[in-house]
From TrEMBL:
Pathway: Isoprenoid biosynthesis; isopentenyl diphosphate biosynthesis via DXP pathway; isopentenyl diphosphate from 1-deoxy-D-xylulose 5-phosphate: step 1/6. It catalyses: 2-C-methyl-D-erythritol 4-phosphate + NADP(+) = 1-deoxy-D-xylulose 5-phosphate + NADPH + H(+). This is 1-deoxy-D-xylulose 5-phosphate reductoisomerase. The gene is dxr. Residues 1-127 form the 1-deoxy-D-xylulose 5-phosphate reductoisomerase N-terminal domain. 1-deoxy-D-xylulose 5-phosphate binds at K120, S144, E145, S169, H192, S205, N210, K211, E214. Keywords: Isomerase, Isoprene biosynthesis, Magnesium, Manganese, Metal-binding, NADP, Oxidoreductase. Belongs to the DXR family. Its EC number is 1.1.1.267.
Length: 381
């Protein structure tokens, strides 16, 4: 195993799975952005042979001298691509947050590794480049919803399903008006009602941008149209997604709201191992609620759908603007509704052309971030 983004929410829960199944999984490579203390602890615990720190400013951190004997340590984002190409790596978990994970995902697929994918942004942005490289059974989604869809499709004919029902908790602000949303804080948004996630995805869940990104991700992963993916608000988060087939039959994957379950399934596929989380006693589960999302109040979902329908390079511009605005909100440099306004502003000013190369996407990502930054500099808190 090579775990990229090992210090984040997905990475640390993946390490939990590796601890539980140490007889089946061997961690040989780890990466972090800046959390060198955590990196050294994990490298020593798992006897890791290779590590990478993408933030070069931490090159001289004294703690790195305590890495295991013989453990190699490299720096910078290019170090991620070196890790995934290592001969002793069979499976790569890409849990790097945001666009930064795209090059490592591309390299891992080209190296014909099994890639377990938690970096939805790179599939949203570069799916036109990544998906043609993915052989059957070699790209396995880690997002709980996409893992659920993947599991529902196992054993089915490869013909496209009639519809995908992509479930959504509704986030912490479900039922609020735009007037109320104008007053919420980052601390409010970070209190997700059902899932334990990193700060970026938690804010995306509050704006419903996360669900918009997941619609585009599902479209790429399962080769269906944007409008064949229907978002379904399900606050209890017991049903992780559903697939409807031509005859009207529907398969759903249910389970605890614990990311270790889809992480483990990605590692164990096609097998199933002992559970990484407590089982659900379905006798104690109350009513299951389903609602349509409020796309007028939470406009990021509608913007993501528009980007997916228009396609080409627009999802790249949309995702870049969202990353910049998401961070600005967490740093109290803009309001909650400014995230949506920033994304709309950048999309309106973006030329849409076919995706041709990774270098092209890097350039569009950079220009979109600059445009988003200029827009946010005019926001007043």
């Amino acid at each position: 195993m090579a775990l990229l983004g090992a210090s984040g929410s997905i990475g640390t829960q993946a390490l939990d799975v590796c601890r539980q199944h140490a007889d089946r999984l061997s961690v040989v490579a780890l990466s972090v952005h800046a959390s060198t203390d955590m990196l050294v602890r994990a490298a020593r615990e798992f006897g890791v042979a290779h590590v990478a720190v993408t933030d070069g400013a931490h090159r001289d951190d004294p703690i790195l001298s305590e890495l295991p004997t013989g453990c190699s340590c490299s720096f910078g984002h290019e170090a991620l691509t070196d890790l995934v190409r290592l001969d002793d790596v069979d499976c790569v978990l890409n849990a790097v947050v945001g666009f930064a994970g795209i090059e490592a995902g591309f390299a891992a697929l080209r190296a014909d590794k099994v890639v377990t994918y938690a970096n939805k942004e790179s599939i949203v942005v570069g799916g036109d480049l990544l998906m043609p490289l993915a052989r059957p059974g070699r790209l396995i989604p880690v997002d709980s919803e996409h893992s659920a869809i993947y599991q529902c499709l196992v054993g089915e004919q490869r013909r496209a399903p009639h519809a995908i029902w992509l479930t959504c908790s509704g986030g912490p602000f479900r039922g609020m008006t735009r007037e109320q949303l104008a007053r919420v804080t980052a601390a409010d948004a970070l209190r997700h009602p059902t899932w334990r996630m990193g700060p970026k995805i938690t804010i995306d869940s509050a704006t419903l941008m996360n669900k918009g990104l997941e619609v585009l991700e599902a479209s790429q992963l399962f080769d269906v149209g944007i409008d064949d993916v229907t978002v379904l608000v399900h606050p209890q988060s017991h049903i992780h997604s559903m697939v409807e087939f031509a005859d009207g039959s529907v398969k759903a994957q249910l389970g605890p709201s614990d990311m270790r379950l889809p992480i483990q399934y990605a590692f164990s596929y096609p097998e199933r191992w002992e559970p990484p989380a407590p089982r659900v006693d379905w006798r104690t589960v109350s009513d299951l609620v389903f609602e349509a999302p409020d796309e007028e109040t939470f406009g990021c979902l509608a913007l993501a759908r528009e980007a997916g329908r228009r396609g080409g390079t627009l999802p790249c511009a949309m995702s870049a603007a969202n990353e910049v605005a998401n961070r600005a909100f967490r740093e109290n440099r803009c309001g909650f509704l400014d995230i949506e306004a920033c994304v709309a502003h950048v999309m309106e000013r973006s030329e849409v052309v076919p995706v041709e190369s990774l270098g092209q996407l890097v350039d569009i990502d950079m220009r979109s971030r600059e445009l988003a930054g200029r827009f946010l500099s005019r926001c007043v808190r």
